[in-house]
UniProtKB/TrEMBL annotation:
Upper taxonomic lineage: Bacteria, Pseudomonadati, Pseudomonadota, Gammaproteobacteria, Lysobacterales
Binding residues for carbamoyl phosphate: R55, T56, R105, H135, Q138, G265, P266
Protein name: Aspartate carbamoyltransferase
One Pfam family of this chain: OTCace
Any one Gene Ontology BP term: 'de novo' UMP biosynthetic process
Length: 305
């Protein structure tokens, strides 16, 4: 594998190998503040982000540094992007400086794939989120988090994805990972205005009644309401959205007793999830974040090591 652009079509063995490796890295790192390895010594990795990020960017930086790489954090807001330089020219110029690995986030669907097509032979790209299309390392870290909580047999799991599925690259990558890993039942729930096309939802049970869809699920994957990608009028009001699709402690009792709750962040507290649930005993939100470092180490090691 030269680039990681999407989980769609990625073989199950490759996904399992990445999850195994990340699980091993995470176990080895437990109880230590840092664990430095040397597989990327001499390699320069650039986090090339044209959209904001806290978790993905920071965890890729930590992951690359823990593998011994030099890391360049490209800040679009203070770069020549502001003068109109294209993403392609930016990439080619950074390549000319010796950058070999690019972790790219962009607002447009397909932008990272287009940059990968323009990149030189020895260059590797990882998609850190493009438009609403794909966020493959989030899909992997969510799968790892579920596997740690529920075991490796996904065929026994009922998983519910809730909220703004239409605008969510996380949901698309989660769906690819869950299908490839053979998840027993995948349910998707949200208002009709925030559900994507039928192809995206193939094989899923789809509904708009959150309380009914929650019955007996083993995991609830909440999504952020992506107001920055949303046209006016897709939801009536934030209060109504919270009333219909907000995960409260009361609602969560409908799920299986040991059900776990995931959210990719950033959280709109009090909108898609209450503080009580986000910070409660069933929440794996911060476990997802720490798994993000291990997954990104496994991905960088596989592509660049
Ligand atoms: N989950 C996620 O992609 O978060 P950031 O936007 O902070 O990177």
């Amino acid at each position: 594998l030269r680039h990681l652009l999407t989980l769609e079509g990625l073989p199950r063995e490759t996904i399992c190998r990445l999850l195994d490796r990340a699980g091993h890295i995470r176990d080895a790192a437990l109880g230590r503040t840092t664990q430095r390895r040397s597989s990327l010594v001499g390699t320069t990795v650039c986090t090339l982000f044209f959209e904001p990020s806290t978790r993905t960017r920071s965890s890729f930086q930590i992951a690359a540094q823990r593998l011994g790489a030099d890391v360049l954090n490209f800040d679009a807001s203070t770069s020549s992007t502001r003068k109109g330089e294209t993403a392609r020219d930016t990439l080619k110029n950074l390549e000319a400086m010796g950058v070999r690995g690019f972790v790219v986030r962009h607002a447009e669907d397909g932008a990272v794939e287009a940059l990968a097509a323009a990149a030189g032979e020895g260059t590797t790209l990882v998609n850190a989120g493009d438009g609403r299309s794909a966020h493959p390392t989030q899909g992997l870290l969510d799968a790892l988090t579920l596997r740690q909580a529920k075991g490796p047999d996904f065929s026994r799991l009922k998983v519910l994805i809730v909220g703004d599925v239409k605008h969510s690259r996380v949901a698309r990558s989660d769906l690819h990972a869950l299908r490839t890993l053979g998840t027993g039942e995948i349910r998707v729930c949200g208002p009709a205005s925030l559900l994507p096309d039928a192809d995206t939802l193939a094989g899923c049970e789809v509904g708009q009644d959150f309380d009914a869809m929650l019955e007996g699920v083993d995991a609830v994957m909440m999504l952020r309401l992506q107001r920055e990608r949303m046209e006016e009028g897709l939801i009536a009001s934030i209060d109504e959205y919270h009333n219909d699709y907000g995960l409260t402690a009361q609602r969560l009792t409908r799920a299986a007793k040991e059900a776990v709750v995931l959210h990719p962040g950033p959280i709109n507290r009090g909108v898609e999830i209450t503080d009580e649930v986000a910070d409660g005993p069933q929440s794996l939100v911060l476990r997802q974040v720490s798994n993000g470092v291990a997954i990104r180490m496994a991905v960088l090691e596989m592509l660049l090591g």
